[in-house]
Amino acid sequence: MSWLRSVSALITICACAWPGAVGQGMPKIHHSESTEEYLSKYYIPVEEHFITTEDKYILRSFRLPRQGAPVVLLQHGVLASSWCWLVNTPNRSLGISLWKMGYDVWLTNSRGNTFSRNHTELKPFLDKQFWNYTFDDMGYFDVVANVRYILNATSRKDLTFVGWSQGTSQMFVAAQGPDRDYLKSHVNLFVALSPVTYLTHQSSLLLSVAQKFRLGVILEKAFPYDVFSWSELPTLGSLLCKVTLGVICDITVDVICGRSQKDSSDAILNLAAHFPAGTSIKDLDHYEQFIDYEHFGRFDYGTMGNLEHYGLELPPEYSLSELEIPTALFCGSKDTLAGPKDVERLKMDLKGNKHVVFSKEYEDYSHLTWMVGLTDEWITDLKALLRQYNPVRPMEASELLV
Ligand SMILES: *[C@@H]1O[C@H](CO)[C@@H](O)[C@H](O)[C@H]1NC(C)=O
Ligand SMILES: *[C@@H]1O[C@H](CO)[C@@H](O)[C@H](O)[C@H]1NC(C)=O
Ligand SMILES: *[C@@H]1O[C@H](CO)[C@@H](O)[C@H](O)[C@H]1NC(C)=O
Ligand SMILES: *[C@@H]1O[C@H](CO)[C@@H](O)[C@H](O)[C@H]1NC(C)=O
């Protein structure tokens, strides 16, 4: 990585040209563009890291490095990728904005998305077993692998974990799993943007239609390996159009997440350039199971399967109340996936838990506003929390140059 460091030092020296270089808005992102290419427009250096989980998945992370600075890990949501933290104007893209503020920023990628199709033994496009996972596995394996790797690489004691959507489900699972003591002492703050646990009241067009038309079964036949990747969109779109009798003919972020007037269409287009980034059918199935049952628990294999997997007829529920990491809940009043009613249920489970340090509902925010919003309210709140739980020293002008 040392050549990268020299290049990044060189690049940072040019940062004085920064404010005029990109203008007030943001450049348009093209599908063929790499993270490195895009961030070079802002003179931001990028490192790539490969992180191996205990069950041998290899996850690719992007680091916007600041040697020795406090660390923030940003974990994207379902069907998304590390791109989601970069698509808005620089001040409103959390990845860019926190790096500018002086943080060492790591953008992790979930198993099976376009960046993390890698395994020490399984071949993603030959072995179906590669796709045999849900956010449960991301919770039990990916979270702790990422945190351990990043703390080792940075020689820091702890970091802040910011999760969006599925990124929060993962952390809620991890925080009550076997590594909870490790995470408790090494995660100084967990920021949950659109916390996804219960889904009884969700009204996402895609999830509702998926459940109604039993899309899981149909999709699994058509796409035995990954599903919802960018390259498959044309085929997937026409298949969905047929099986949903015309309800869904176009897969866009809006269809999956809904949107609000507070969202910028330019930023949504930028997000769409690398969305959807794919996941397993089983992952979507697992979420779908929560629509029927008011429950947030492990994968339901049916009575026989559950007896085999868990020794119980019903899948065990996750113990949300065991959360011991300082946690901040950011919710949107117009969120169709993590809507106010379902978040209320989560808050009841966490009632009296002194580790919930912040909880706010943002007026007219959709599931996407954190990524593509025209508003600064939430980012101002998040930065205030960081100043308290993971403060960065104000940077000297000279430090910005090296
Ligand atoms: C971005 O934020 C910085 C400080 O946080 C501020 O000085 C600047 O005016 C902001 N730029 C825009 C375009 O909002
Ligand atoms: C898989 O991971 C290895 C590192 O373990 C890396 O060198 C290789 O480029 C990765 N392959 C892909 C397709 O990401
Ligand atoms: C998926 O993994 C589970 C164990 O976690 C196993 O019981 C099941 O048979 C696997 N399914 C497939 C299709 O490989
Ligand atoms: C920890 O980091 C050092 C170098 O910084 C590396 O040599 C070592 O392999 C890392 N250990 C783990 C478990 O990643």
Instruction: Give the overall pLDDT as a whole number.
Output: 82
Strand order of the largest sheet: 1-2-4-3-5-6-9-10
The tally of beta strands, per DSSP, is: 10
Q: In CATH terms, what is the architecture?
A: 3-Layer(aba) Sandwich
The level 1 CATH classification is Alpha Beta
Helix/strand structural class? alpha/beta
The ordered H/E elements are: HHHEEEHEHEHHEHHEHHHEHHEHEHH
Helix coverage percent of residues?
25-40%
Give me the CATH fold name.
Rossmann fold
Strand content: 5-15%
Main β-sheet: number of strands, strand sense, barrel status? 8 strands, mixed
Number of helices: 17
CATH superfamily: Alpha/Beta hydrolase fold, catalytic domain
How many individual domains? 1
Shape: globular
Which value, in Å, is the CA radius of gyration? 20 Å
Organism: Durusdinium trenchii
Family: Belongs to the AB hydrolase superfamily. Lipase family.
Protein name: Lipase
Keywords: Glycoprotein, Hydrolase, Lipid degradation, Lipid metabolism, Signal
